[in-house]
């Protein structure tokens, strides 16, 4: 253990290594707090602090009266170039991915939409609210905006699969580039409702601007991902 590392941080790291190495499998009950105290020769308070942090981060699940279990693996999503739909990305992880549409409406462009989509102020923009689920559990809440002139009349059936595929197949609009910004946000009342999490839970927050080959902006979206259920893979070629 490094001198600068606290005991509970060290134990958390050790337990996380065991989980990621497969020593503790998803759904498996881990040793009790007392057993871990003996294993690491530390106090119960120290062990509990490590377990609490791993639970908050989504690696462990604590069931009252039964113990602490290894949580299901987080949903992996790629930030590298990919044409795979959400359901396809999830399927290779042994999970069933579903996209459900909350609401589709048409709104007048405000200042942020004017800037993000290069449209006129108050121009009609389609607002598409969707929830992505893995094995029935919400992992992402997304609000996408697409100018009416780009793809007029997007329907629920288009948004339930892949918006980008619908843009290409139905409206002959092909996404050639996306620019994504990621930061940490805390779930508000609306987000927590759709993601089935507590208000204030840390989430990944992503803003995306999609462009066609000519540089026309065809979509702007805001997405909230449950931080305890999602991680991202970035692949770079040099």
Automatic annotation (TrEMBL):
Q: What InterPro entries does the entry give?
A: Bact_HTH_transcr_reg (IPR050679), Chorismate_lyase_/UTRA_dom_sf (IPR028978), Tscrpt_reg_HTH_GntR (IPR000524), UTRA (IPR011663), WH-like_DNA-bd_sf (IPR036388), WH_DNA-bd_sf (IPR036390)
Residue ranges constituting the HTH gntR-type domain according to the UniProt record: 5-73
Q: Which Pfam families match?
A: GntR, UTRA
Q: Which SMART domains match?
A: HTH_GNTR, UTRA
For this UniProt record, the keywords arranged alphabetically read as follows:
DNA-binding, Transcription, Transcription regulation
Question: SUPFAM superfamilies attached here?
Answer: Chorismate lyase-like (SSF64288), Winged helix' DNA-binding domain (SSF46785)
Name listed for the protein in its UniProt record: GntR family transcriptional regulator
Please name the source species.
Tigheibacillus halophilus
